Amino acid sequence: QVQLVESGGGLVQAGGSLRLSCAASGTIFSIDAMGWYRQAPGNQRELVAAITSRGSTNYADSVKGRFTISRDNAKNTVYLQMNNLKPEDTAVYYCHADGIRVPSYGGSSWYLGRNWGQGTQVTVSS
User: Fold this and answer.
1) DSSP H or E stretch at residue 39
2) Whole-number pLDDT of residue 86
3) 122 near 9, Cβ under 8 Å?
């Protein structure tokens, strides 16, 4: 079983910073892409940032210049540094992984189980 566990959420005032972490546990060969999504009450889940195993990144327009995504491939961990937080950043932040390779007899295969973390709450007060 592969699990994604987020940490680092909390309550912060507008203009403050938080750093989220997400570690993928289990026997994993590699993960193609990891990313962060967020969902506020009544809203759809939206992509915040994503990063490939080679370091290519993608950000939502609303967080460009404020958030930075990074990853440690050896640790199967992705981070989201959030600076200059705004009240509209308030949401549950979810870690996601694409293209998880796990061991199988004679090689590896795609992991077909759940590839979402449980979510971590980020609340930004004004």
Assistant:
1) strand 30-39
2) 98
3) yes
